Amino acid sequence: MATSPPGVNYAGTGGQNVDVVVAAFDNGSGVPQIVSVANPFPVTSAGGASANRSFVYLPYKATATATGYNTGDLIQQIEEYNTATTPSTYVDTIWRNVTQETTLAGAPLAANIVPVSATASAVSITNAPNVKLQDGLGNVINSLFNASGDQELLTATGATNFTVSTNNSTVVQLAASATFTGVIENAFNAPSVSVLLACDQPGILTFNQYITTSAGTICNSVSYPTPATTAGNCFTQSWVVNGNDVNFTFKNTGASTTTTLNLNVAYGNILPATSLLNLPVAIREINGKALNIGQQASANSLPVVLSTDGPGSSASSPVYVSGSGSSPVITGFTAMTVGTTYSSGIALQIICTIAGSVNIQLLNGTTFSLAVSPGYYLLPYAVTQIVTSGTTATATYGNMASTASSTSSSFSSSVPMTLGTVYSAASALQVQCTIAGNVTITLANATTMVIPVPVGYSLFPFSVTEVATASGPATATYTNLS
Questions:
Q1: Handedness of CA 303, 307, 311, 317 (dihedral sign)
Q2: How far apart are the C-alpha atoms of 55 and 12, rounded to whole Å?
């Protein structure tokens, strides 16, 4: 129960305790609108009689000075209703000056007051009651003084809300060489993007950023070759989003259809991170000086620990120098069918019989067209597919393989080879031919291949164990070099 304002007797209650509800608003018409009337409640009069009463407060602001109020005072019209009747009946009206805490002798002139609405200016009220703010669980919301001495509410930053991109996430499986292309969507209010990728086939994930949702406004594109992943070893990265609009693509570069592809893209507030949960770092300077790659003064160079287990290196000579003669030796061969995807090797063999174009797909998914004439080619390309579209030459193709420990440098020994005899694998095959033709050889991994040899001297970086007897019609001598 709330005590009636000082000096006010409600309908003969003699200042008894009553409940009061303020239920009015301004709908723009300038007339206060009653929203609801409180439920009936007992009021005991001074004479002991029982009555049911409800009160409605209608707020006004004084626009002129007159008896009982000044310009700017908050005035309340308090209407009393008897709720013991059906419907409730009007009993009385009291006018109250809230600012001065006094009761008016009568109603103010209508020209001297205006209804209080959401657009009314602030009203100063003295002796305002203290209010304790609480949340929905009843916990008190405290305040503190800021650096300027003002009282402010305490707030706490909530958890970051991530928005999953349904346009750029997918679980639809991809056939070999197929590509998922996400929809270009607005990311203007997204500071960062997080990507989780699981896939049992290798692929290429590309992050594109645009100025608008038009593909022609692309301003940045970064591709990431992704290996086949297993449970607990997925591709996880996050990046800063600078573009207004973005999308993702993912191409399956494996030989088979994916079975576990799950690309999950979400926007939120997260720092950039690598798959090892480290911040990505690009070094642009050292000690305030521009970084130069190569042999520079120590103050401008990166300290490097050289490996001793790579091609052409050893504990005593760990550095491979381009042009030194050290190079990988081919130890395996895989015949390639046009249009089929394979694991990449270290070189591509082409034996062409009718000139034309060869459309080659490299390990990173890019393709290019190569014009070839009849003859033999050994090209240093890591190829995954001879693409059907755009390939017009008549030729056979082979992927060449090597092991990290198989390298050649300056040759220090030679072993003449007899047709049909098996030898220990060496570093290279020397052929001195008097009549051109084809030669069938066996490599270190037991695969066989046919190579055409011209008249004269030829040196092939093949680790050969045998030159087959049926190698005609070439007439030549063969030597294993190591």
A1: positive
A2: 14
Q: Find tokens 């052929």 and name the residue.
A: 431
- Domains of the chain, start order: 2-115 (no CATH), 163-268 (2.60.120.510), 327-401 (2.60.120), 408-481 (2.60.120)
The pairing of beta strand 437-443 with beta strand 464-467 = antiparallel
pLDDT at 247 over 80: yes
Return d(Cα 23, Cα 34) in angstroms, integer.
6
Question: How many angstroms separate the CA atoms of 482 and 148, rounded?
Answer: 83
Decide which of 17 and 101 is more confident: 101
Alpha-carbon torsion, ordered 364, 370, 374, 376, to 10 deg:
-30
d(CA 88, CA 29): 25
**Angle at CA of residue 371, ends 475 and 339, nearest 5°:** 90
| Model pLDDT for residues 391-432, shown as the tens digit of each residue | 998 988 988 877 655 555 556 677 888 888 888 888 788 888
Partners of 378 in the beta sheet? Answer: 349
Q: pTM of this prediction? A: 0.37
Predicted local confidence at residue 81, as pLDDT: 84
| Three-state DSSP state, 88 | coil
